[in-house]
Hints:
Elements: H1 4-26, H2 59-68, E1 79-87, E2 96-103, E3 111-119, E4 124-132, E5 142-146, E6 155-161, E7 167-174, E8 188-196, E9 199-203, H3 209-212, E10 222-228, E11 238-246, E12 251-260, H4 267-273, H5 277-284, E13 286-291, E14 297-306, E15 311-316, E16 319-331, E17 334-341, E18 348-357, E19 360-367, E20 381-385, E21 404-407, E22 412-415, E23 420-424, E24 429-439, E25 442-450, E26 465-471, E27 474-476, E28 479-480, E29 482-491, E30 494-497, E31 503-509
Antiparallel strand pairs: 1-2, 2-3, 3-4, 5-6, 6-7, 7-8, 9-10, 10-11, 11-12, 13-14, 13-20, 14-15, 15-16, 16-17, 17-18, 18-19, 19-20, 21-22, 21-31, 22-23, 23-24, 24-25, 25-26, 26-29, 27-28, 29-30, 29-31
Amino acid sequence: MNSKPARNIILVFFILTLLGIVFLVIFPISAGPDNTTQFPQGRVIIPQALQYYPDDVNPAEYLARMELSTLRLPLEDGEIYAALINQDFDNDLYDEQIVAYRNLFESGNPIYISYIDYDALDREYVRVWSAPVAATQPGTISLYTLDLLGDRSTCMLVSGMNNNGYHTLTIYRHNVQYRTGREDIPPFSLIGEMIVDGSIMVRETERSQAYQLGMASGQSFSIVANVRNQDSANLMDQIEITYDFNSISGVYEQSGIVHIHGTQVEQQRVRELLRDQRTFEEFISGLWYYVSPQGTIDSRQYIYFDPPNKEIIFYENETQQVFTWDNAFSTRIGLFIRSQNLSVATFRRSIDIELESLDSIRIKISDNVRFVLGSPAPWDGSYRKARAQENITPQSALVSHISAAYDSPIGTVNFDLEGNFRIISAENNIQGKYAFYLLNEEQILELRPLENRDAGIMNNTGPRETYLVEFGTPETGDIMETITLSRVRLSTRGIQRLYERAITLTLKDIP
């Protein structure tokens, strides 16, 4: 039998099979019975937050900020977040959360705090307790914890202001018997609440070494409130009320009253200064030197208020801290300001300013970062306003401001004695404020670009930039022939070099 026809048949069959496979790959047969035209189906796109880290924040610090501001449990309808704090209150290795919020569905929009606890059995966070606080203005709320009573129990302190402009302080004590099987014991109990038309502060006293070592209890801290003396015609006269903890009743009770005679000032002028918030902001604008308890002025420690640019600069021992002015509220005898550190956003500071005389103010500071116990807040005290002829910028090894023009790779850089700079190039025209100052014995230049709306000029604004400065040979007086700038970042770790190419400024002109 001749096998050649059989081989041909097999070859033809193989070719036809191969062509069929290719056809099915190119033109697949739809499995659906619907022969109508098929349109592309739209995709659901979920917007994602950009992983943007500001120039002055590293990714680790940015994520830490997000962790500190993340709610463990969504709020209910009508509840608007105001502040929160994370802490392991019961030593179960899980952080609980205290959230302050306002309720829009209730008359007056009161503010509450809620305790959000972790349920290990269900592996989820649940809201187990809520209670009201005296404050009603969300922008003034400050939460922090403290061993207020000296018995190593945790107290939750909620400070703020109400709609009448009064300072408030609500204190809740954590119950150690909570979660011991008794359902009648809430996680926190109210032990004190003060509402005054002045200031409120915790008077911390130094505790014994035995307390520090965990061998004994410590003395409870007092609460001190300063209010106006309603019986006096002088608006500056005050009454200092002291509250101490009563271990028998379990609450803070009034324990003492002291009359404080204020400066006798022309009352009409005082009323004018306290007439509205803007007037008082204009009054405090500028430089204020610290006045020691002995009455001497310390020009090495001062605070500079800049209301138009919403900044506050604290300067002490050649160290400068810049805070952004978040919001402010009028008080009976001054202003209450909430601020945030420019370099470390998690560092917030509350500033209570009281009028002391026509050229002095009294300041009380509250930070959300607790200092070493027994160390008084370095900024609390009286401040005297600087005279117009006094230098109102940070001190430096050279000068704070110069008047000169320099050529550089980024364009012509002009400085003037008013603290203004301008960088002119073919692409940019950047204007703003500048200052030379010392930090940790290093010369620093800070440039703060401002918005420029002049017609016909290309305007550029950008973030604040900080440079390490190296000076060349003086040309004349305090004017340097060359200035070398190396960009750095200021943080809690000090001066961090960014290792970018240095910029050399060469003197061009002296006005």
